[in-house]
Design goal:
The chain is mostly helical. 78% of the residues lie in helices and 0% in strands. The radius of gyration is 25 Å and the shape is rod-shaped.
Length: 189
């Protein structure tokens, strides 16, 4: 009886020594994955805010530059593409397309000095610039969270736990090809 009890205790200790690190690693991966999901939701929120501001911005510009229909169509199409994005890569591509269309719209604005003096236009511009800055920060936060998560899931012994429980690699938020340079926007001229 005494020898059997020692074996049972030894088995329980061995199981605990194996289970505790697995549970800790699993919980750590869950926390990091939730951080990635939260960062992605933050990007979604700010992209939606920008999308909500764009119609007012376009309508204000249309009031002064109604003949510029092509650029208004490009902005609308890019905005719809962003709204229909199904994953982070599609979202990044659509975001780059919308940013490109907005930068072309801002070039059009340069031809209308009276528009730049419009208070509604200036207010919308400030809101859009602030939103663009928040989006840039959110992208960086997302990429930091993804890097931390992917590093944890690839390191030994976390990689064993990650594969056992199906923790998949997360993609970084990458700019689309040709979107390496951020357009310079200056309304002070």
């Amino acid at each position: 009886m005494k020898g059997g009890m020692k074996v049972l205790i030894a088995i329980i200790v061995i199981i605990a020594l194996i289970a505790i690190p697995i549970v800790g690693t699993y919980n750590s991966l869950v926390s990091l994955e939730l951080k990635v999901n939260s960062a992605q939701a933050d990007i979604d929120t700010d992209l939606q805010r920008r999308s909500d501001l764009i119609p007012n911005f376009v309508e204000t510009v249309k009031g002064y530059a109604s003949q510029e229909k092509e650029i208004f169509t490009q902005v609308a199409e890019s905005r719809a593409k962003l709204a229909g994005a199904q994953n982070i890569k599609e979202q990044a591509d659509a975001d780059a397309s919308l940013s490109s269309a907005l930068s072309r719209l801002l070039v059009v604005v340069e031809r209308y000095p009276e528009l730049k003096s419009n208070q509604n236009f200036r207010d919308l511009t400030v809101e859009l610039e602030g939103t663009e800055n928040r989006i840039a920060v959110r992208r960086q936060d997302y990429n930091n969270a993804v890097t931390q998560y992917n590093t944890k899931r690839r390191r030994f012994p976390s990689n064993i736990v990650a594969s056992m429980f199906g923790f998949e690699e997360k993609p970084l938020y990458k700019a689309a090809e040709g979107a390496k340079e951020v357009p310079k926007v200056d309304f002070s001229k």
